[in-house]
Amino acid sequence: MKSFVAVTDSSFTLPATDVDKKIFLRLDSIYKDWTSINKRQIKFADLTGFKENGQTHMPLGVKIAKGSTK
Q1: Can you say whether residue 9 is alpha, beta or left, with left for phi > 0 and alpha for psi between -120 and 50 degrees?
Q2: Taking the CB of residue 12, how many other CB atoms lie within 10 A of it?
Q3: 41-47 long-range contacts, CB within 8 A, separation 24+
């Protein structure tokens, strides 16, 4: 399974496209009051691209069944 982590710096391996940037702006308008677990506001417009195979983790409370291939 490939993973892509959104980044806000130049470490991306896949840059954000113009379509991505438009979507990020729309998400910012929908989630303008959304804060992360550490209470910092998340700004999608700050995303510059995606880093392939970056370290990721499942959100707290999400469990994957053993032996799952998906």
Answers
A1: beta
A2: 19
A3: 45/21, 46/8, 47/6, 47/7, 47/8, 47/16, 47/20
> Would 37 be classed as within a structural domain?
yes
Domain that holds residue 36: 4-52
pTM reported for the whole predicted model: 0.65
The whole-angstrom separation of Cα 34 and Cα 49 is: 20
Q: Cα–Cα–Cα angle for 36, 40, 55, nearest 5°?
A: 55
11 assigned to some structural domain = yes
The total number of structural domains that make up the chain: 1
Q: Each residue's pLDDT tens digit in the chain (70 positions)?
A: 677 888 999 999 999 999 999 999 999 888 887 777 767 677 899 999 999 875 655 555 556 666 655 5
